[in-house]
Amino acid sequence: MLKHWLPLILFASLGLLLWAGIRLSQQRDPNAIPSPFIDRPLPAFSLPMLHDPSRTVDSASLIGTPYLLNVWASWCPECRVEHPEFEKLARAGVIRVVGYNYKDEPQDATRWLQQFGDPYEVIVADESGRTAINLGIYAAPETFFVDAQGIVRFKHIGALTPEIIAREIMPRLKAAAR
Fold this sequence. Notes:
By secondary structure, this protein is of the alpha/beta class. It has helices at 2-27, 77-92, 106-116, 130-135, 162-177; strands at 40-41, 46-48, 56-58, 67-72, 96-102, 122-126, 142-146, 151-157. It has two domains: 1-30; 31-177, 3-Layer(aba) Sandwich (Glutaredoxin). Strand 4, helix 2 (77-92) and strand 5 form a beta-alpha-beta unit. It is elongated.
């Protein structure tokens, strides 16, 4: 008797498993790719400044207050979408915004900033993209929230929106201030 029901039980179990997987994936943020750096120090780096390549900025010099590390490029269409949000944050003085110019020609990046505005306290340039590999950067845009001790507390892949800022960045910023 069980022999006749076994295929139906297996089919129903497989269907239930598939349904549960779909429901769980709908509840997650599609841009939330787990980062191995969450709750760990941002990997050390030293890169030239975009506006003055003779000077470098290293990750240790950024420690002291929380900041957003925004990975952007002039060739990135989504970077234009999120750029006004960084301008608002910088204007309001809510948090330091550090630019990470990724695989871009310096003259293209500079022209882009002249056209759309420059909300960044400092901008590092990673023309080759080699340092980005150590930071776990996939593409532009990406944004890291780094606390005052240099610990990565949040990473977002894709354009940063007002909703993500309100839901993810601001609570972490308030927690870091305590």
